[in-house]
Amino acid sequence: MPTISDVAARAGVSTATVSRALNGKPTVDPELAERVRTAAAELGYQPNGPARNLRRQEAAVVALIISDVENPFFTAIARGVEDVAHEVGYSVVLCNSDESAEKENRYLDIAIQERVAGVILSPSGSTTSVAKLAGRGTAYVAVDRPLPGQDSDVVLVDTRLAAREATAHLVAQGYERIGCITGPTGVRTADDRLAGYRDALKAAKRRTRLVRRTEYKAAGAHRAALDLLSQPEPPDALLIANNAMAVGVLQALRERGLRAGSDVGLVAFDDAPWAELVDPPLSVVAQPAYEIGAVAARLLLARIADNTRPATATTLGARLIERASSQPAGFSSA
Prior knowledge:
Layout: H1 4-11, H2 15-22, H3 30-43, H4 49-55, E1 59-66, H5 72-87, E2 91-96, H6 101-113, E3 116-121, H7 131-136, E4 139-143, E5 153-157, H8 159-172, E6 178-182, H9 188-203, E7 211-213, H10 218-229, E8 237-240, H11 243-255, E9 265-269, E10 283-286, H12 289-305, E11 313-316, E12 319-321
Parallel strand pairs: 1-2, 1-3, 3-4, 4-5, 5-11, 6-7, 6-8, 8-9, 9-10
Antiparallel strand pairs: 10-12
Helix pairs in contact: 1-2, 1-3, 2-3, 5-12, 8-9, 10-11
């Protein structure tokens, strides 16, 4: 592994100058600092993160603030973060904001008080308090949802496109009255999935009135599904914005004596472990949750090493997994 001395030799400066340059100290001439960063990149040099944190009186700890610890999507993200962080000596503390801006803000305060090296968070809504992290110089990365009004490192999935493709799949399967149950207004993923649903129905020249918005929870989706099923012209298919909501929808169908696929076609976001086990198996939009966490952790480590680097936005793709819940009885797409 290249050392700080190797970088100093390549750049033609002292090791102290390398340290100041890579720590973003303003006392280093900008041209000299760029030379140091170029030498470090050419050599593949990575500062010893935990050692740097000790010198700065920071803990070798990363705080991960997710919006729903019960959702397998977020637990898979957490695993990706932990695996990457563990490789370089960092520990990960998991915090559950429960889609509450108040709880998120409290965890950010705790992260600052405990002098964590960095924060990865899934923002809970249209506002956030990460400015306090920036003010202190604490590195942070957003996952799943962008930070409102912030030019920050972020790892997203193109869920608008994924929702469009999933809805188009339901159209192609022959469903006529396709509804959507999505999350709260102002939550980026909920808004994007609704927009993708509308994109597909507009392209198919279908109506988009069968929409309900609720919390990203089974209970809210259960109420929303019962409401839609009580309409004079109920939906014969539904796009569901996450797997927790899918549980509530399946419960509502069972209460009404309806079967997924043959009576009401279903596609839900996220491939939960149980999705293949229900009868019929659930069609899903599978997001690369583990990869989201791993990419976010690498971005955070890079940000900890150099807090002056330009922000990086990474957008990953999702894939539709077709199963029997989106297959009407006797219908063949061929």
